[in-house]
Amino acid sequence: xxxxxxxxxxxxSSAVPVRYQGGSxxxxxxxxxxxxxxxxxxxxxxxxxxTVTCIIGPSGSGKSTLLRCLNRLVEPSDGDILLDGDSIFKxxxxxxxxxxxxxxxxxxxxxxHTALGNVALALRKVKRMPKDEAYKIAAARLAEVGLAERxxxxxxxxxxxxxxxxxxxxxxxxxxxxxxxDEVTSALDPELVKGVLQxxxxxxxxxxxxxxxxxxxxxxRKVADQVVFMDEGRVVEAGRPDDLFDNPQSSxxxxxxxxxx
Length: 261
Ligand code: ADP
Ligand code: MG
Prior knowledge:
By secondary structure, the chain is α/β, with parallel strands linked by helices. Helices cover 38% and strands 23% of the residues. Helix 7 (190-205) links the parallel strand 7 and strand 8 (209-213). The longest helix has 16 residues, at 190-205. The radius of gyration is 18 Å and the shape is globular. The model is unreliable at 1-16 (pLDDT under 50). The structure holds adenosine-5'-diphosphate (ADP) and magnesium ion (MG). Residues 34, 37, 39, 57, 59-65 line the site of adenosine-5'-diphosphate. Magnesium ion is lined by residues 63-64.
């Protein structure tokens, strides 16, 4: 396992030089409806390996639904999604979700397990890993997100930011090629947001492919390779952050930016 530190002492260092092999995603003509309510209308998106794509847009524009389509928490009505060239609809959803990890606004940790236990449990359940190996990898992942000192604490004894980093470590433990983040800092107290965003920025620099739904415009500007602006179930504009933020083309993006910046 290329992500495993060579020694326990290395795992304790916060400067573990982890590298990831991010995968590519190609979304074509993707449409999705909840019953009669059509919420995505022909989305096209190219996400290159090892890049960070930030999705911005007003509430209800379909950002979460698009993210959920990418790891098949919901099924589209039309279109296709390729992961490294293969349609994700050929895989079993549970296999896909090892390759495409997701982190949510709510941390969804088990309250009766420690941080270490939460990450190890996921490895044992999803990857059917033996206990020793699961704990070893879980410890390395928690060190990677800066929680080596806190891994024996239960969620209630961790800050919201630390809990969210446990959730990120849990997703990373599956060795994903793509990480999806849905407003992961929205529920955090303001002083805890920065640490989580810094971790995500570092993850982006380390080769992980990331798709990040966020209201943090400074993060999008600084970290994203590509920013996608969605409105009413469509991609209205997509491009480099400087182009989008400094030179918006559509009136809808101009209006959105004037409201959030
Ligand atoms: P965003 O994440 O941009 O706020 P969502 O993808 O959550 O947007 O929602 C897009 C649209 O789909 C909204 O109109 C929302 O009300 C609707 N929607 C979201 N989830 C469901 C659901 N589970 N059932 C029915 N409608 C939903
Ligand atoms: Mg949402």
